[in-house]
Amino acid sequence: MNKEEFLSALERELMALPLEERLSALQYYKDYFEDAGKDKEETVIQELGSPRKVAEDILKDYRDVSTQVEQPKAPPINHSLRQTENKSRMWLLVLICLLAVPIGIPLLMTAFGLLIAVVAVVLAFFMVILVLAIAFFLAGCVLIVKGIASIVFSPVSAVFLGGVGMVLVGLGILSGVLFVRMCLSFLPAFLRGFVELCRRPFVRRSEGRA
Amino acid sequence: MAFTIGASLLDAIVLSVVSQEGTYGYKITQDVRKVMELSESTLYPVLRRLQKDGYLTTYDMAIDGRNRRYYKITNCGTTKLEQYLDEWKQYRSKIESVFFGGDVHE
Predict the structure, then answer these.
(1) Are B26 and A35 inside 8 Å of each other by CB?
(2) What's the pTM value of the predicted model, to 2 decimals?
(3) What ipTM describes this predicted complex?
(4) Residue B48: C-alpha distances to residues A20, A21, A128, A129, B36 (Å)
């Protein structure tokens, strides 16, 4: 490598620098070669080392100086950058919430409606059994009374009516027992499950916080 | 040399060398090398930094049919150099009082 090759290699390595900086560095090393003299050219190149190494020193120092000048500014910039990052993240969250509203609210309402429907169905089932029990019981009673009333004129139909009435009364009592047992066993469990379901989101959130 | 020379001491030496006369890169390197080991690629970034800080200024002068870049100390640089020299005296007397005992005059 001779002087010209060294200088052009150095110029290539310094392309990252602004033109003025690059020219200044090249001027310095051109001068250096000239002042060292033609006969010392090889010694100088050897001592300087590779153009890349020389360029690295220059670039490193240039960066250091630039950052030193901007240092008072740098931390606030970083800080505000982080802040804006946080802010934009928050805005993003708000935006997501806003976008979720048209879907989320109907979904929530649907879920709520379904929940109410389930509760209503279960309650209706209980009501049906209760009403059935009362209806069986009352109908049975009425038939028994009718049977007793017709015992003089038509003993056969009286026995028939009385029998059917007793069967109905029995069904009514069975239904009533079923209703009571269901109320005693199933309803509390159902209500507990329902309450648990409603509490779960809040419970989970407070657990997450702890 | 057994002692390493820090960046500010190198700055002070360069300022001192340049303050004595208008001089150029190669000569500065040779002058600094008289007192400390210095790789040839070390000096340019130092000169450039001192120039950026306003302690040195450059001018071009025609010599042997080409332009040579000269370095000159500024007023600001002279003040800085005096500061360095003061600090150096204090530093030296502290070090020497440890090395050679308390009889070194401040």
Answers:
(1) yes
(2) 0.50
(3) 0.80
(4) 12, 9, 97, 98, 20
